[in-house]
Amino acid sequence: QDTLVRVENIKKYFPIKGGILKHTIGHVKAVDDVSLAIKKGETLGVVGESGSGKSTLGRMIIRLLAPTEGKIYFDNQDITNLSNEKLRNYRRDMQIVFQDPFASLNSKMSVGQLIEEPLLIQTNLSKVERKEKAISMLEKVGLRADDRAKYPHEFSGGQRQRISIARALAISPKFVIGDEPVSALDVSIQAQVLNLMADLQDELNLTYLFIAHDLSVVKHISDRVAVMYLGRIAEIAPKEAIYDNPLHPYTQALLSSVPITDIDHKREKIILKGDLPSPSDPPSGCAFRTRCPMAHDRCKVDRPELLEKKNGHFVACHLYDR
Ligand code: SF4
Ligand code: MG
Fold first, then answer.
1. Chunked in runs of 10, what are the mean pLDDT values of the chain (322 residues)?
2. What are the sequence ranges of the domains in the chain?
3. What is the Cα–Cα distance from 211 to 220, expressed in whole angstroms?
4. Does the domain at residues 3-93+173-320 carry the CATH identifier 3.20.20.60?
5. Ligand 1 centroid vs 148 CA: distance in angstroms?
6. What is the pTM of this model?
7. Residues with C-beta less than 6 Å from any ligand 1 atom
């Protein structure tokens, strides 16, 4: 299977300014050396707490943010240092659906205008063709043709997210990032929107990076899952391996707090001590050691590498790297 997206050793360090002269006094290491690849048609789920770097990673992959270091490839082209001008050719292929459709949809534009705007900017479609496309996208996402004339505030949160999805997919992207696209929605609506995104993926041949803070959200939609902690990947594996045989103590703790629906998978709840340390001052050695129930002497000094344990199951933890 072909790779669509590949990042190599990417980092994003945000400077922290301080003092009267606003010198740089440190850095927030939002993403600290991440490498991964996403195959065409695949969904990679990325899970982590806020501050884990998952959104920053997503924004770098589609070059909304420039990386501090590292390489980004899209469809085998190095896009790391492309100018905005050159990036325009790729913008059509990469879209992002944000968490809050209220904030991301311009309230002064009608639904028709919202969906047609990217078509106007990015394609040569005529006015009639743009209108037809908007109608067909509305129908694809479960809304109606005459919703074109309405405004975002006339819709529920779930419907607004459907509008965001119609807008993102209208220009036929290859790659779509969902940046917590269902986190702001009622739990009862979340599954509907997730199912819609999964159906559209199959229908439109999309590749997804799906960001969430909770392992339960990405369970059904993902083929593989990456768990991030303080800017690094703690574990990445095919979905079944993550949910049935998590190796990293952090993944185990996250999973133990996911509501159990399956009686065979009864887990003891693991309570993590303490809060997420500051990404500007991460612990030495393993960044997770201040909260890890399995931490030992070596964890204080050696940073664990992300190593393949078996068949595409990678983990960064000294319990496995002897
Ligand atoms: Fe815990 Fe040590 Fe493994 Fe880090 S390397 S997750 S501190 S056991
Ligand atoms: Mg799929």
1. 95 91 90 97 95 95 95 96 89 91 86 96 95 97 96 94 96 96 90 95 97 92 97 97 96 83 62 84 94 95 96 97 77
2. 3-93+173-320
3. 13
4. no
5. 53
6. 0.93
7. 248-249, 286, 288-289, 292, 294-295, 299, 304, 317-319
